[in-house]
Amino acid sequence: MTSLLVIIVLVLLAVALWQLTKIFDLTQVGSSSDDSQIASDNDNNVQGYILFGFLAFIYIFTIYGLLKWGNLALHTPASEHGLLVDNLMNITWVLIFTVQVITQGLLYWFSFKNRGHKDKKALFFADSNKLEAIWSIIPSVVLACLILYGLYAWNNIMFVDKDEDVIEIELYAQQFKWTARYAGQDNVLGKANVRLIEGVNTLGVDMSDPNAQDDIVVSELHIPKGKKIHFKMRSQDVLHSAYMPHFRAQMNCVPGMVTEFAFIPTYTTAEYRELPFMVEKVANINKLRAEKSVELVAKGGTALDPYTFDYLLLCNKICGASHYNMQMKVVVDTPEDYKKWLSEKTTLAQDIKAAAAAEKPAEGAKATTDTAAAKIKDTVKAVVDTVKAAVAKVAMK
Ligand SMILES: [Cu+2]
């Protein structure tokens, strides 16, 4: 309590001192001719040129960044709708850049042109209807066109016709991994609920549903080139986001609801690896890895493996500590390879049966151990009883 009082007193003292200095300052007004705080024409000129220097810095850095790191951006899209997304993105970039150059140029030019000057007086200017109309109508029209084009693209991408021939796949998100479920022969995913999660049925598939009988659960996603894949996303715990950058696809995975996305892959993994830009990119990565390996080996570590490209399904919502590592390999096969791969997989129903069968002998083994333990216990008890009886007999004698 005392220390609190001391602190309050100190704070009040500081405030009082501050007020005193202010009063002192006020008493000095008019008594001195110090105008060092008032900008001179020279100051205004310097500020004007610094302003232009800053504008130059922004543009030089932007152009340098584009030249130096521009090649790190995503290249050729690997899905049919990807071209539409990239187109929309590029148009938006061109528009933003053009408008930015014009408006920033005007802003900096007028600031420089009308910089402070001893003989200049600011003009009072309330408003101009003409100017207001120009800068309201032009952006509205441009934005409306952009939004309309965006909506057209969105509808094109998101629309899946009921009668369309698609492959149904479920993507199941949980901290911190992805699991895929194929709909099987009937191409209908069985119902699922988190309450039904048990043993190998990690996705909570309702095994009483006839549609679930041929469902296949895998940890690596294979999809065929040229076929429309209809993904249905679920999440077990928190918000995740299924992100497949090479296919220009992203959709949130929300606990308690099913979200969806569909696309047609246009390059198999093998074809995408052969694209010139990818060959160059991989060679560059491996060059860096080789250099790093030399360093590591010199320090007694192990060399890095060479990198090969693979499509990835990533999580794009920060969902916890290992979010950065939540990913699944995606392989785009030729339709024949895809069929072959899928035919080699066992269904979830078979997996559950196999797990149950594997559990039974284990239970039997446990029973045998229990019997043996009981037998030993009985023998020990009998020996103890005999010894006790003998001791009692001797004592009686
Ligand atoms: Cu996640």
From TrEMBL:
Subcellular localization, as worded in the UniProt entry: Membrane
SUPFAM superfamilies listed in its UniProt record: Cupredoxins, Cytochrome c oxidase subunit II-like, transmembrane region
One Gene Ontology term from the biological process aspect of the record: ATP synthesis coupled electron transport
Annotated membrane topology: Multi-pass membrane protein
Annotated GO CC locations: membrane
EC number(s) reported in the record: 7.1.1.9
Stretches assigned to the Cytochrome oxidase subunit II transmembrane region profile domain: 66-161
GO molecular function: copper ion binding; cytochrome-c oxidase activity
Keywords: Electron transport, Membrane, Respiratory chain, Translocase, Transmembrane, Transmembrane helix, Transport
Alphabetical list of InterPro entries matching this protein: CcO_II, CcO_II-like_C, Cupredoxin, Cyt_c_oxidase_su2_TM_dom, Cyt_c_oxidase_su2_TM_sf
Keyword Membrane assigned: yes
Top-level EC class: translocase
Domain Cytochrome oxidase subunit II copper A binding, residue spans: 164-344
Chain segments annotated as transmembrane: 47-67, 88-110, 133-152
Family classification: Belongs to the cytochrome c oxidase subunit 2 family.
PANTHER family in the cross-refs: CYTOCHROME C OXIDASE SUBUNIT 2, CYTOCHROME C OXIDASE, SUBUNIT II
Protein name: cytochrome-c oxidase
